[in-house]
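Workshop exercise sheet. Pairs work together: one partner reads the sequence aloud, the other fills in the structure field after running the prediction. Swap roles for the next sheet.
Pair: D.N. / O.F.
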Amino acid sequence: MEEYRGIILKKISYKENSEIIYLYTEVGLVGVLVHGSKTIKSPYLNLTKVLNHVKVIAGGKNLKVLRDGEIINNYSQIHESLEKYTYLTHMVELVYFFATHEHDHEKLYNFLLKIIEEVKNNLEYIPYINMVELKMLYLLGVNPNLNSCIVCQETNNLVFSVKEGGALCTNHLPEKYYSNQVLRVIQKLYYHDINKQPQISVSKEFLIDIRNAIDEYYEYHLNYHSKTRKMLKGLIGY
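Structure field:
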């Protein structure tokens, strides 16, 4: 038997009344079969919800089977906000997609817990989601060069190019780019230390550009596109 604490990133139905939940933990992704979880009398009926932070005791070699479990935090305040819930679903979809990639799972797991708390407690929560998406690029090995021109190392008057993977100066402008102001916001989010500076704010005028830049970067460099994105666009308008 092993004990795991984790965030439920995804669940799928198994046979008629059971589910498999996928937890993101300090050791990475763990799949756990929860027998009878879809029955009304099941003690685990509410445990298997996506985004729940749970503690489980499970045994087995390949697919682990739940022996006992409890909810540490169900983030009920987030579930009450469709917009927040959808944005966080978008975030955990990303984490799940790349969860088998070799990186520092313990660091990312603890970071995600802090981000979820910030989303829960803040009205202006979108920058925290953007922060996760940008910092994930470092873990995945495709982080952009943000501080100097990729071509000549110039550090002044830089813009951001998705295709080139980072900053370019005015002497090497690409065909399509995001402004210096957008680059500065990306730098702000990418380098933000949530342990030392928990509060962060981004002007609403830049949120659309940041969202588009991140989407384009993931699609171009990782061939990844969130399935939740269409629903999210319907809620936030971009």
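Discussion prompt: The longest strand covers residues 2-14. What would you look at next?
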